[in-house]
Backbone:
């Protein structure tokens, strides 16, 4: 019981994930700044921002639903943290594993996005509502390709349990190359999930202020920001477990370093992507996801079925 | 889309997309803009009126502060218009120096615009890059005049500061850097797909509509109208310099971007010529304190388009009337046309594409019935401002009462 509590709250649960999330945010911000010829923040800036927000006054609109407004950020953090446990991090076995845990992880990773919608919608502000609608509209565009590619990788492994998938790819690292198009699709859709440029349409500040977060302030905003940071780490962990099956059997310390390196590599890719493009419009984003991302994911499915049928009997 | 109901969304007076207060009320259906109402007037400062209470040389410094970006445009045009009334012939060297500073100002204004445009479409890397390169021009302007903005170069009858041969060399070197970087931006604009996705076909104003709406400057030139006061009605030394009027037939925000980037290259050409052909001689002639009675309208190609100053002199040392028509006032009508049937996401870039300067544009207009005319006193203008804000819920407290007492007593 105590051990499980430690797992959930300290390592690799909430506290470790928060630290990792803030570190990922720092890496992202620093890289983004360096790409833009700026100096960038010091390493403790994300933590300082978090603490500062905790100390700020909380203003909740009168019209807002008092419970939903407060619960949305908490549920977002909770579901993002919960999504981590079935993912194998530095061993081939995750903390929790059962058949079909991949579906649970994907579902839990959808919840934060849904909570952005709930929080924005329940705050009853015009900008927040437009942002919420945009969040949901976007969700339907990027979620399908993301599900499709991760499940495609699972089909090749013949299991819907992340631990089995990781074990399968770890024994055949060459198959990583087969899933490369799927990895790119997953990376792009992860950008949509994290609402980053070019898919930061729901919080486009020059159009709708802060979108769903417009009415949030103080600690609730801090919790939302933390949720996004954690989601970034968990999303990167999911991608590295499914698509980057390297260094899983090199012991606890070595495996941990490889895991951190893989997460920061994905954060690096995300930072590069956001510094070289402009924000798309909602209609362009949906067209892009359905006309390019979804067909590529479908193609990946065909490739994997062929590989499975021809070579992995 | 889930909500197909019509609703109105306020953008401004305070909004992250706007760099200064202006009110836009957009009627939306989903993400689509059905119509837009534009309310200006949040920044009225009474500078025209303020000029009437000051001597010509004081008013020159006041008009320089109409705009923080095209300050040299206002000061030069004011000086030129007063010189025209007084019949002062400005030395050739002063004319060239005015051109050099004016073109450096155009470069800094266009680079600033390019960065703002990048920010409006969520391309912050472009903002950071252009503003870094803009520092080159800002440093040059600071070296020439001592200031990064509000250069204070002009005086009635010429300019106040000269350029040494060493400084001329540094200007040419700086221009090299700007030219090289600008060519890179032209490449980015031509090749970057997401940038083109957001700019091409957005905020379209065809040539005939642009003419009808009275668009000026880069907004008009991007719709294929080759209007440029520097060529059409040359002032300062422009008649002796060779340059091209950049036009584009995209008629959209992309066209306006390309026009501005190409204009930076043209400005570099002009500066290079002006520095090389800089004539010798004095930089100013002495101007009388009292300007003889008369009136004149001056025109000037500011970075944002055609700028108009009207000055009436009554023979005293203070102007009788100063009227400024800024390019934003001419272009703002086109914004409503551009916003029609566009998406909400296009609104910031469409508004930014005319490079608006609202504080320069804001005027107090008093509609009166009948033929009664009167001249407002300075206190009355301030009181009108206080009351205007009071109606919108901003209370300045006892200031209004104090002004009312002053007017009565």
Residues:
């Amino acid at each position: 019981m105590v051990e499980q509590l430690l797992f959930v709250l300290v390592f690799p649960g909430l506290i470790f994930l928060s630290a990792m999330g803030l570190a990922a945010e720092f890496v992202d911000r620093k890289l983004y700044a360096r790409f833009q010829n700026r100096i960038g923040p010091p390493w403790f800036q994300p933590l300082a921002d978090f603490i500062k927000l905790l100390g700020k006054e909380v203003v909740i609109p009168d019209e807002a639903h008092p419970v939903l407004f407060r619960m949305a950020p908490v549920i977002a953090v909770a579901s993002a943290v919960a999504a981590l446990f079935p993912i194998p991090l530095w061993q081939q076995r995750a903390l929790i594993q059962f058949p079909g845990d991949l579906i649970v992880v994907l579902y839990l990773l959808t919840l934060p996005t849904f909570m952005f919608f709930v929080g924005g919608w329940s705050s009853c502000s015009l900008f927040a509502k437009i942002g919420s609608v945009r969040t949901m509209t976007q969700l339907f565009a990027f979620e399908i390709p993301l599900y499709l590619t991760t499940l495609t990788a699972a089909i090749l492994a013949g299991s819907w349990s992340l631990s089995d998938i990781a074990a399968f790819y770890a024994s055949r690292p060459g198959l990583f190359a087969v899933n490369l198009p799927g990895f790119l699709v997953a990376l792009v859709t992860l950008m949509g999930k994290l609402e980053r440029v070019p898919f930061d349409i729901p919080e486009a500040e020059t159009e709708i202020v802060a979108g769903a977060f417009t009415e949030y302030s103080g600690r609730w905003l801090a919790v939302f920001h933390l949720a996004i940071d954690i989601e970034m780490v968990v999303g990167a962990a999911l991608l590295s477990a499914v698509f980057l099956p390297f260094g899983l059997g090199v012991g606890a310390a070595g495996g941990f370093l490889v895991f951190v390196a893989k997460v920061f590599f994905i954060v690096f890719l995300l930072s590069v992507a956001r510094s070289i493009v402009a924000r798309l419009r909602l209609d362009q984003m949906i067209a892009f996801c359905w006309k390019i991302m979804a067909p590529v994911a479908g193609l990946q499915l065909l490739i994997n079925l062929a590989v499975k049928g021809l070579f992995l009997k | 889309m889930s909500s197909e109901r019509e609703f109105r969304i306020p953008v401004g007076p305070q909004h992250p997309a706007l760099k200064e207060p202006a009110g836009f009320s957009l009627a939306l259906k989903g993400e689509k803009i059905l119509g837009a109402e534009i309310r200006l007037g949040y920044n009225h400062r009474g500078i025209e009126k303020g000029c009437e209470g000051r001597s010509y040389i004081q008013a020159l410094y006041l008009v320089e502060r109409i705009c923080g970006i095209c300050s040299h445009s206002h000061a030069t045009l004011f000086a030129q218009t007063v010189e025209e009334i007084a019949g002062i012939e400005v030395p050739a060297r002063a004319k060239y120096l005015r051109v050099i500073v004016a073109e450096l100002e155009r470069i800094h204004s266009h680079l600033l615009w390019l960065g703002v445009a990048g920010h409006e479409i969520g391309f912050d890397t472009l903002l950071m890059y252009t503003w870094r390169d803009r520092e080159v021009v800002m440093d040059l302007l600071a070296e020439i005049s001592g200031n990064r903005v509000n250069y204070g170069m002009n005086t009635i009858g010429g300019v106040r500061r000269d350029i040494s041969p060493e400084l001329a060399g540094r200007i040419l070197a700086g221009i090299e850097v700007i030219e090289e970087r600008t060519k890179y931006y032209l490449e980015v604009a031509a090749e970057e797909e997401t940038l083109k996705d957001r700019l091409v076909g957005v905020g379209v104003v065809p040539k005939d509509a642009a003419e009808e709406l009275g668009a000026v400057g880069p907004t008009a030139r991007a719709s294929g109208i080759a209007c440029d006061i520097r060529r059409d009605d040359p002032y300062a030394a422009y008649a002796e310099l060779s340059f091209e009027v950049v036009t584009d037939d995209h008629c959209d925000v992309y066209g306006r971007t390309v026009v501005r980037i190409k204009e930076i290259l043209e400005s570099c050409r002009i500066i290079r010529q002006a520095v090389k052909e800089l004539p010798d001689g004095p930089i100013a002639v002495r101007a009388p304190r009292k300007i003889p009675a008369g009136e004149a309208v001056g025109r000037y190609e500011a970075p944002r388009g055609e700028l108009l100053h009207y000055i009436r002199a009554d023979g005293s040392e203070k102007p009788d009337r100063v009227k400024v028509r800024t390019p934003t006032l001419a272009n703002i009508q086109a914004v409503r046309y551009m916003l029609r049937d566009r998406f909400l996401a296009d609104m910031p870039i469409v508004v930014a594409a005319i490079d608006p300067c609202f504080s320069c544009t804001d005027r107090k207009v008093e509609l009166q019935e009948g033929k009664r005319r009167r001249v407002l006193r300075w206190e009355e203008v301030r009181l009108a401002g206080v009351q205007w804000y009071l109606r919108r819920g901003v209370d300045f407290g006892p200031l209004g009462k104090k002004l009312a007492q002053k007017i009565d007593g």
Summary: The interface with chain A takes residues 1-3, 7, 9-10, 15-17, 31, 118-126, 128-129, 132, 192, 194-195, 197-198, 343-348 of chain B (CB under 8 Å).
